[in-house]
Structure formats: structure tokens, C-alpha cells
Write the C-alpha cells for this entry.
Amino acid sequence: MTLDYQSQLSPAMANLLPSCSDVAFYREHGWFVAPQVLDDDLIDEALVGAEQFYRGERDSELPQTGGFRDWKEQDGGPLRNSEFVSLQNHRIARLIREPIVGAIAAKLAETSQIRLLDDQLVYKTPNSPASATVGWHADHAYWGTCSSDNMLTAWIPFHDVDELRAPLVVLDKSHRWTGLEHTRFFNNPDLDEVEVMLRAQGHTIERIPLSLKKGQISFHHGWTLHASYPNRSDSPRIALAVHLQDFGNAYRPYWSTDGKEVHIADEAFCRRLPNGDPDFSDPDVFPVLWQEA
Ligand SMILES: O=C(O)CCC(=O)C(=O)O
Ligand SMILES: [Fe+2]
């Protein structure tokens, strides 16, 4: 069934879509901050969903466990990273299926369709230590078998995020840099160390912390380097990173520089195409979040 998603945006919502100059800004800078487009109620429901999830409750089971980040209570620690949460929790699924999320992404990426790739629920304890830093990484560096360089991520915090409460920090215009294929330092809290390496490659570093109000969403290009500081506030910090495919994305075989075949966890969940390749448009795993009318 093809839904006419366009009709699901009220005129008031459609007014909040990125303008032509917003799209030009995203193209140039590799990130964009949307206005308050999500209702408090919807986010509060997602928070209830996150609490259920952290207690170990599941609305549905994944076809396979392992091969991805899946924080469990016994792991403890100041930083929790849980992937594919929307496939396991209805309330989180509701949040990411809110049409405005995909609609903004489609505008920015200048594509006719947005499909989920995966998601990550990220939690930082109050007053977390330096080890709760999320290190510099480009999301696409984790998506070797995705053919498109036009993918992006929507970052949805479940509360206001000021400079103290671990905002996402982007490196301005880094999506245009070359040689980022190996920037997979999500788990390296030493931001300065990686910056030294990036400077040595000739890059000019401009950190931009993206403070947001509850209801706002930030978007970053798949090749934009980003990180987040420890949480220096007295409250937990919780946010959902929603990784998105543009229409043109498809599976491609991919090998690392040492000749090993690369695979991403998504491949194990989805149906196969007639030629045996994973189908990155399997609606059970990669639901369409926006389709242009
Ligand atoms: O929430 C965070 O600190 C990290 C999120 C992230 O890496 C992303 O949105 O791609
Ligand atoms: Fe990321």
C-alpha cells in the first residue's frame, strides 16, 4: 500500500518544512536544526517507551539478536547505546513515524522517499564522567554496504538539551571532506586525539554544539562528523538518533581496506532480492517514513 504521506501534513506543519535557503544551508554545512515540530505528548510517550525498553520489556522481537549495540541493565555505565529500538517498541515507532520527521528529511536530502535504516537510543546518566563522551564519527562510515551518499540522521532529544546536557556537536561542513571512510570513533571519548588526526589531514575544525528545545529535531548528513559531550546536568540525557535512507539507497557489496567483506546488522533482518542481496526496502525492517505525493 502506498500512502499519500503529503496529505498527512497539516498546512501549519507544511509551513514548518525547510525553505529553499534551509536546504541550501544543509547542502553547504551538512546539518540543520528544525523548529519545534513534535508535540510534547508524543515525546513523553516515547520516553515511557524508552523506560519500558530499558526495563527489558519488548513489544516485538527482532528476527536476530547480536551484531549490534544492545545495552542491558547488567552493562551499567554512564552511556547506553541501544540499536533498532523502534522495531521493538511501539511508542518509539510512533515517534519516528510522525510524518514531519521524514518530510523534513526528504526536503533536506532532496529525495522523493525516506525509509528507516535503523535507530539508536542514547542515554547518559546525570553528571556523567568523560567516558560518556560519544566520539567523532560519520554515520556513513558504519554503513559500508549502503550505496547512497545522500543518507542522513534525524536526532530527537526527549527534553530540552542545552550546552550542559550533552548536545550533539557537529563539525561544520565536514560532510564534504574526503577520506572519512574509517571515522568510526563513536566509542573513543578522546575528541582532541581524533581532531589532531583530522587537522593533520588538512581539515579545519569548527565545532558547533546544537542546543535544542524539546520538540526540535536536528538533522545531519551521513558524512558529517559529530560527537557529544558528557552530560554535565543533574538530569539524564536521552535522545533517539533515527538513521534514514533516501530513495536511491540500495545494498552494495563492500570490502574493507584489508580485503574483508563488510556487513551491517540490518542485512541479517531483512528479506532478500531475487539476486540474493539484502533488500534495503523491505517494509518490515525499513518502513517508508515519507513518500512524496
Ligand atoms: O546522541 C548521541 O550522543 C549520539 C547520536 C549520534 O551519533 C547520531 O545521532 O548519529
Ligand atoms: Fe552518529
